[in-house]
Structures are given as structure tokens and as C-alpha cells.
Amino acid sequence: MKLAGLKSIENAHEDSVWAATWVPATEDRPALLLTGSLDETVKLWRADELDLVRTNTGHSLGVAAVAAHPSGIIAASSSLDSFVRVFDVDTNATIAVLEAPPSEVWGMQFEPKGTILAVAGGSSASVKLWDTASWRLVSTLSIPRPEAPKPSDKTSSKKFVLSVAWSPNGKRLACGSMDGTICVFDVERSKLLHQLEGHNMPVRSLVFSPVDPRILFSGSDDGHVNMHDAEGKTLLGSMSGHTSWVLSVDASPDGGAIATGSSDRTVRLWDLKMRAAIQTMSNHNDQVWSVAFRPPGGTGVRAGRLASVSDDKSVSLYDYS
Amino acid sequence: MNLTPAMASVYIPVQNSEEEVRVVLDQLPRDASDILDILKAEQAPLDLWLIIAREYFKQGKIEQFRQILEEGSSSDIDEYYADVKYERIAILNALGAYYSYLGKTETKHKEKEEYFILATQYYNKASRIDMHEPTTWVGKGQLLLAKGEIDNALQAFTIVLGNAPDNVPALLGQASVEFSRGRFSESLQLYKRALQVYPGCPAAVRLGIGVCRYKLGQLDKARQAFDRVLQLDPDNVEALVALGIMDLQANDSVGMRKGMERMQQAFEIYPYCAAALNYLANHFFFTGQHFLVEQLTETALAVSTHGPTKSHSFYNLARSYHSKGDYEKAGMYYMAAIKETNNNPQEFVFPYFGLGQVQLKLGELKGSVSNFERVLEVYPDNCETLKALGHLYTQLGKTDKALEYMRKATKLDPRDAQAFIGLGELLISSDTGAALDAFKMARTLMKKGGQEVPIEVLNDIGALHFEKEDFESALDNFQEALGDGIWMSFFDDKENLKQTGVSVLGYKDAGIFHRLIESGHSVDVPWNKVTTLFNLARLLEQLHKTETATFLYRLILFKYPGYIDAYLRLAASAKAQNNLPLAIELVNEALKVDDKNPNALSLLGELELKNDDWVKAKETFRAANDATDGKDSYAILSLGNWNYFAAMRNEKRNPKLEATHLEKAKELYTKVLTQHNSNLYAANGSGIILAEKGQFDIAKDLFTQVQEAASGSVFLQMPDVWVNLAHVYFAQGNFALAVKMYQNCLRKFFYNTDSQILLYLARTHYEAEHWQECKKTLLRAIHLTPSNYTFRFDLGAVMQKSSSSTLQKKKRTADEVRQTVTEAENAVRVFSQLSAASDLHVHGFDGKKIQTHVQYCTHLLEGAKVHREAAEREELQNRQRLEVARQAALAEEARRKAEEHRKHQLEKRKQEDELRRLKQEEEKIQRIKEQWKSNTHGSHKRKDRAEDEEGDGRPSERKRKKGGKRKRKDKSSRARHYEDDEEEVGTMDDHNEVEDGDANTNYNREEENQEAEEPVDDDAHDLLAAAGLEDPDADDDEVQVPASVARRRRALSSSDEEGKMMESQPNPSPQKENSPERQEESNVEEEEDADLDEEAN
Lengths: 321, 1097
What we know:
By secondary structure, chain A is mostly beta strands. Chain A has strands at 3-9, 17-23, 32-37, 42-46, 51-56, 63-68, 74-79, 84-88, 94-98, 108-110, 116-120, 126-131, 137-142, 161-166, 172-177, 182-186, 191-196, 203-208, 215-220, 225-229, 234-239, 246-251, 257-262, 267-271, 276-281, 288-293, 304-310, 315-320.
């Protein structure tokens, strides 16, 4: 398996690009790349030329997360002002604006069947679940707070939920927090199953293996990518190589590899059999905030694609084979 | 009486008769008295006495010889034989010669003297009988020679030769004298003459010739002479030895064998020849038969008085003990050998070398140096000596001299790998590049020579590459040094140990190694590979292969549970991953091995500090300091930093306490600097203290120097100093440079991930009134550290400030105002969120305070909206006005065009008129001519220029003046902070707040100033006043509470960074292996290295 650079757009945004995801293909069009930036815009791009389809405005204070509905019809973007904007991908019509004060908004992901949008709630120490039909808050999954917070404990080690990930069957939801713990919930019963240990620094990105719903990958500021058994609560392995924070992790659709983006300005491809980085892409010259594999499907697009976005304002596209 | 011709006999005439008594010389009576009786009774001629005595001597019956001669020289004889001169003299001379010989061979000093005295007495007596007798003079000459009085001996022989130039004994004596004086060719001439005069002279004469020729370097002729001696006297030991020496010196195996045969032969003939003994001993030394060496040399010593020979013997003996490892004895004998050469290395230099070596072993470095130096006097280009001295001077701390010698050694023999290794070791601390070259040269030489390159050399090469950030080469060398072992499985892909699931967490679990053993792996780690293995693990850590590094550290600990550094690295690794409890546990494991290990204690203190356990941390740092007797810079630095943090941490500043802590910190930094004047961390610390006291220029110089010095080594990462420099630029108002420095630091050291430095950057932008940059910077900080609410508060404050400042402008565009409205809306949102969150206690801001901000911003927003409407109205009006103006302009243009057209027409018409007129005039003239009557028209005024070209003018764009006034005020307020603290330490409060980068405090203060001085509008007045009143208290008490503690610790000086530096745990760098001789010294070196490295991360 390997990555080959296809196209890079310098100055794709006017400022740092912080978020990226693929909007699945619909009957009318192929999959599109959705990016969000500090410049307060959200942009849609068409592969492989990375033609700009549209620029959405309306956010304040920088777009930190984007998520796409599995249908490919709607998507969500959120900014540091803690608003989530749900919109129609093709018309840019606003479908809903979500907020759950005082909860902030960080990572977001639609449930694989598309019925729920999960939003990492920052200092509310919870994940907010929004019904995608009524756009009402249907559930709040709270993570346990430390029993007696030390008075000396300042800001960073409090429970603060940063990232979320759905298991491919939609039964499990994992969330990562600032202190490095990962909580796994049984969504149907709204029950915390257990906490996964191994990181002691912020976990900014999580992804389940698309082929094995038990396996969860986590990227952390400690520079490691950990591989957990989300059911058995065990740490299966730890992969190091990045020289700074791991900001984003995504699993390839075939389940054989994962890609990571890091503050060390690189994108790495990891062979899960060897449990080692087999390729390092150094085309970005600042922190790589997000990497995303294109989901399979759509007409005539069998080729694997990986996108990465960075503080250097650029968006890059790679062929994955 | 029968005559038996075969037997030599003498006949003693019987007195007063014709008869004679026949004495058969072979059958002399055992008791000499018998024969003496006959000699005396028959008054036998004295020559008979002499003959018989000589015969006794020949037969070895020395006592009888002496008895007869003493009787023959008694006073009775003198009286009786008074007229017989020559025989009496001969007897006396014989005795003199006898005692001379005894004196010469006697080894005991006292007896020797006595014999010489007796000999002298006999010769003097002989001289009294006839002072011109040449034989007496010859005897005297020999005696003097034996006594070593060469000049007197020369005189004696000269006297004889003056009368009889061909006197053979005198010639031989003279030759002897000349030989002793080193005048070998003169000596040779004399020997030759003796041989010419008396061709049948004894073999010894030819021996003399041989030795002279040998000394003159005429080796073939010398050999001929010795061969001739042996022809004449096959048992001549000297000739055998001489030939043996010459054979041995031929230096080939045939010669050696022949030489040794001759030596053995000589030994068999005469076992007491010291030279032969020495050479035999020398031989057996090389064959390793030490017992024989000692036997032989001891005998040689017993029989020889000859200085050089004895020296040689002592040397042999010393060497024997030396090689057996008995250095004390060896040293003694080397010294004896040196003494025998009268301390003259030119004579025999080997014992100096040996003694030097032995003293080196015994640790008598200075003595060793002086002995090697003596060797150099003789052989200035001897590489072994140069190398030995190089090492010695290194140990004595005279690095320059050591380098000089080592360099010379490598130049003299560019193929001497050892010399290059020595040079490399010397250069490690001063010039790593040159050291690397030297080691590489050594490696190449050894590989060329088919030698195995020692693991130490490869390790050093690897470590040096490591330091130069050439990680690939470092890895290659470490791998080569380690050779085969379990570690190799990490580097080939066949076996995958990564699956074993190693982590620091399970450091106590040895099961993984047992499983490896069971599955057929060897987990051996030979002791000499531990250091390299450790270095390899360090390198892997650097390459962020944390799992492999962890595995190796655990392997080291599995095999060598006392390897503290491995524990400390594991602890550092746990700490890097923010697992403080585990890190502390690991350090405690290390402390179980050695509870006084300063590195472990320092790391523990650091961890405790990070855990906010101030008191404990201080105790631990103290313990670390005590454990090293206050000599460990790192421990002192830690204490210094502790004091600095302590000065800065207290929210309610106690100026007195603060000053005490600062003073203490300064003292400690200074102490480190006196110990190691190039300690960058101490220099940095001192710079911080200077900056705290407002001496920015000096601080800046110091920081700049540290920054320069810190560049270039992978182990020396000092982001702190960049931050500090930036702080100083900031404090001096040089915002552009400060911004650059912060940004460079972020990028160079932190991959732009440090939100704290982003905060400094934001503050700088704020001061420079670059609101948008400031806002963006804060947004980045929030994005990096979402849980830090200080950034959100500051973000709100910046937007509030920026919108209010826009509103205060006299002139602004509607766009600006619209943006201001958005900004104010965002500010309201940010503060509202903070306000809502304050109920959850996720941050420590005071709810009321935030509420005030919310209200103020809301108010601002309302105001802004009004302004926006006004501005939009104005904009509309402007637009309308513009439209009117445009219309007017258009109309004007049309009018102008019409006018032009009209004028044009007019002109045209005028011209036509003119023409017509001219025509008419002509006609008129004609007519006048005819009528004689004239008539003229008035002239036309002409306007060349259109008067109304410029029209009405476009609405002039008025340049908006920036809030210059406000800017000045801000500056002055900042200046005030600094001035204050320069004036007196007591008000440092202000100053520190500024330096704290405690953004919100200052934002508020300035906002307050500005608000108080420039109220926006009347409606806002009350609210502003409220905010203004509230702010000062809030600043000091509430606002900072949650956010600022961390920052305060950091303070201007980025004490936090310092924290970082200390955090960075004993991070022992690749240790350099050392040759055993350098061990001690190298330990010191290692420690220092470790210091730097620890601090480096």
C-alpha cells in the first residue's frame, strides 16, 4: 500500500485549514471534499482536480469541525463560537443551527445510518446527541468527572471532551478527552461501558476500524497512535514515530491501513500488519490538522483517495492504493 | 733423580754444594710452607720464588701464591737480597697486580677499598726500590684504571711509553684508557701497535681490537677479530658474548638462534659473565620464562659491577615483574636500573619508559609524566611515549599539551589507530567534529589492518553522529558496535517484536523476556554492550521510536537491574506522555538502587514541581544538591529555578518575599556560573533575574549570547532563551522584533503547538494594537488548548477593545462599523458562554465580573448598532450625495460640452464672419478707394480657455487619523509600569504583571484607562464607570485567579520554560565509552555531559 500525491491547492483558504471530511457521493454527483478554516468559511471541493464547488460563510471565530451525513445530502460545520450549522450540501440552505449552551462544540460525527449527530461537548464533559430528523437534542452522554478535583488542578487536566467516533455498526460511541482518557458508550442504553487508558495527553482524534468494530484507533498529543480493543478494554498496541502531536487519525476503507496527520507537519501511512509507519508525506509545512479517506461508493470511483489539510492554508489530495 | 722431560721442574741450588733440589711444578706441595722452608734454607734466588708462586696461581692455589709472595717481600728478604732489585720489584708488582684484581672484582665497597690500598702499598714499595721500573708503572696504571682514575692511569702509562714506546703492557693499558674515554680509534691504534710489536700476544689483545672496531661500527672487521680470538682461545667468553650480541642484533631468526647458542656456550664456559646472563635473561623474558629471567639476572647482578651491565640486569628484572603485574617491585628495579646509568637517559632509556608505565598503573601520574618526558629527550619522535604522555596530560587536565602530543603522534605515524583513538577521546569535549574525524580515521585504519574495531570506538562515533543530528550514521555505528543480539530483530523485518506489546506501563513485568527466551530468542546483553545499547535506545527515542526504545531500556533493566539511567529514561518517557504517577514510581525505583543519585533526585523534584508539590520539590532539590556536595550544577540550577518560581508564583505578591527569593535565585545561578562559566542555563537564569530588575539591555546581551551558544547541538535545545529575548524586546516596546522572535521560537522548537507562547504573541499584537492578528492568535491558542478558558476571556476582551476603539474613531466607514457590530456580537457571545460556564465551575472566572463584561459588550453592541445605523444612514446619504454630485457632474459635463460646441460654432462663425468681413473690407477699400471714406468695427475679445473645466470636484477622501492620542496614552501607561519598577523594587507588582503576559489584567487596565478618559458616549457612562470601578479590584483579586497561576510561574522569563528545561529529566546523553585508563576522568566528563543533556530537553 502506498500514497501518491495527486494535487495540492496552496492558499485553499485564506487562513489555517482545521477540518476536513468527505461528503459521500449521491446519485447526482461524486463524493466531495468539505473543509473548514480559521478564515470562517467552509469550502466544497471536487476531486481529483480539487475544483472549488462553493464557499459557505456565516461562521464566526474559525471553523473547527465538519461532518457529513452518510447520505451525502447534508453536512454540518461548527466553529469556535460553539454554533453547529447543518446545511444542504448542494444548495447550501441552512437546515438547522444547533447550540447547547454552555457546552462548546468540538469533534462531530454522524451515526453510520445517519439518524444521530454526535457532538463532543468540551467542558460539559459530555457528548451531545442530536436527532437528525427533528434536530432536537435527544441525549447527553456524560463522562465521569474526577471525584475530588485537586484545587491545584488548573485548566488543562479537567474533563473536557474533544473528539467522538461511532463504531461502524452504530452501537458504540467513543469519545476522547483532554486528559487522555477515552470513554466507550453503549448508545442504545446510554450507558458508559468503560474507559480506555494509555494516553495522558489530549486525544484529538478517534476512529473505529471499518472492518472490525472492536478496534479503535486514537491519536494523542503524546505523539502516539494507540490501538485499543474497545470491547475488551485492552491496549493492543502503540505506534510511535510522529515527532509532535498526532492531530488526526483516519482508517482506510479496506481496514488495512490508517493515516495520521500531525503537528510535525507530516502525513503518515501506517501498515496495520506491520504496525509501522510505511510512508511519510512531507508536503505540508505546518501542522496537519485533519486527514480523511474518501468513503467508497459513487459512480466509477473505485480509486482510494486521502485528503489532508493544514495550518499552511493548503489542501492536499493523494492516491491511496 | 730422574728427569722426566714431560714435567716442568725447577731446580733449587743447594747452598754451598753443587747439588740442586728438583721441584716438579705439577707436584707442588699442598702446604706452601714446605717449599718456603726449602727456598729460605737454600737461599734460593728470588726468581725461583716468583716462578713457584706463579705456578701456584696458575693452579688456582691463591693462598699459597700469596703466602710465598708475601714471604718473598718481607723485610728479611729485603735485607738479605738488598742488591737484587728486579726480582724484588717483580714480586711486589705481582702482589700489587693481585690486589688490584681483587679490588676490581670485589663488589663490596669496603673490601674493595682495602684491596686497592694494599695494591697501592705494594706498588709504592716497588717504586721505592727503583722508581723507573716500567713494569711498576704499568701495574700502577692498571690499578688506577681499575679504580676508575683514568687520567692518572694515562699518566702512568705515558711515563712508561716515554722511555719504551713499544712496551706492550703499557700499550695495552693505554689502549684501555683511551677506550674508557670513548676514543675508540685511538684505542684501536694502540691495540694494533701492541700486536705489531708482539704478534704472539694473548687473545685478549685481539678482543680489544674487536671491541674497538665494534664501537666504531666496523662490524665485519670486529667479527673477524672476535673470530680470530676464538681460533686462538675457543673458550674466550668475551669473544663469544660479543659475537652473540652481534648475531642477536642482526635481528633475524637465524641470527637470533646463533646468538643465543653463543650466549649459551659462553654461559657454559663461564656462568658468571654478566653480559651473557643479561642477554639470556632478555631471551627468556620474551619466551615468558620469568623464573629463569630472575635467576639469570640475579646472578648477573651478583657478579657485575659494571654500571651499564647492572642497569641492564635491573631492567630485565623489572620487566619480568612488570609483566607479571607486580608493579611495586617492577618500579623499584626500574629505578635501580636508572640509578645505575647515573640518571642519564641517553645511556639507557628503556627503564624510564618502563618506570613511566608502572607509575601510570600505580597512579603516580606526575612521576610517570617526568619519566616519559625523559624518554622523549632521547627519542622525541617515539609514538608510544607521545601517546602515553597524551593520556597522562589528559588526566592531569593539561588538555592543550595532551592534544599537542597526540597530534604529533598521529602525524608521525598516520597509520597508528590507537593514536587516533587517543586524539579522538581528547577532542570529544572540545571539538566534536575533529573528534569524529579522528575516530573515523582510527576505524578505517583498523578495518584496513583487518583488526576488529573496538565497540568503544564505534560507540563514540555513533554518539558523535547522534550529537550532530546525523541519526542515520549514528544508528549504523551503534548497530555495528552491538553486533548480533535480540536488538537486531527490530531492524530487519523478518521478525516482528513490535507485536509484543511493550509499554512503559508494564515495566515490572519480566514475562515478556521469559517468553522471548522460551521462543528461542537470546536476550543476552554482554556487559560491554550495555552503554551502546543504552545509547541506541536514546537514539530511538530521539527518532520517536518510543516502543523500541522502551523495550531496550527494559531489556537493560532485566539484565542489569541497577542501571539507573534506564529507569530515568523510562521515567522521562512516562513524563513526556504526562503520566506523572508512573514517572514518579520509576524514579523511586531508581532511588531504590541509589537513594543519593543526583539525577534521580533532580528528576523527582521536577516531577513534584509539576505536580504542584512545592515544598516537597524543594526538599528533593536540596537532597540532590547535598548528594553532590553542592558541586552538581544541575542541582543548584534546580534550586535556583525553584526560588525564581517561588518569587513569581504568589498571587498576592509579597514584595519582600519576592525580593528574597529573587536574590537567592540570583545567588544560586551565579554559583553555577563560577563553577562552570559556560553553563548556558545559569546564564539564562541570570539574564532572567536581570530582566526582572529591569536591566533589559544587559539581559538582552546575555540572552543573545546564550542563544548563539546553544545553537548547533541536538542536546542543547533552549527555547527558553528565545522566549526570554522576545520578552525583553516586548518590554522595550520593540513589538515587531518580539513578534518575530516568538514566532520563530514556536516554529523552531514547538511545531507551533505551544499555546502559552501564542498567548505572549497575542499580547504583543495587543500592545501593538493589531487587533485582528491578536484575535487570530488567540483563536489558534484556543484551538490548540480548548480547555484553557483564559484564552476565551482574552478573546472576548480583545474583541471588546477592538470594537470600542473603532467606535471612538471620529470617522469610520459603514463597513468598519458593521465589522464592529459583528465583533461586539462575538464578544457578547464569548462572554455569555463564559458566564454560563461559570456555573459549572469549569473555569475560575468570577461570574459577576464576566457578567459585567457581557453587559458592557451588549451595551457596546447596542451602541454599535446605533452607530451602524447612523453609519449606514450616512453611507446612504453619502451615496445619495454622491449620486447628486455625479448627476450634477454629468449635467455639468453636458453643459460644458454644449458650451464647447457652442463656442466652436461661434468661432467658426467668427472666422466666416472675418473672412466675410475681410472680403467686405476689401470690397470696402475698393469702395473707399472709390468713395475715400473709411469705417472700422470694434475688435472682439477672445477667450482661449474654458473657465469651468474643473467642475465641482469629487468628494475628497479624508484620511482618517488613527487614534494617535490613545496610542500615546497606552504607551505612556506601559512606560509607567516599567519606570515604576525601575525606581523601586517595592512596586514590582505592576511591572511583573506586565511581564507576566497576563493579558487579561492588562487589557482590563488599559481598557479602564481608556474608558475613564474617553467615554464613548453619555449613555454608556454609567456602565463604564461601573466597569471601571469594578475592574481594578477584579484585576488583582479575581480575574487572574484561575488563569494566571500557571502564567505567573512562567512570568517574563518563561520560567515555565525553565520548568521545561528542568522537567526534562535526566536525559543522559549517549555516554561516551572510555578506555580503562581514562575511566576516572571520563566519569567526570560523563556527568557533565549528562548535566547538559538533562537540561537540554
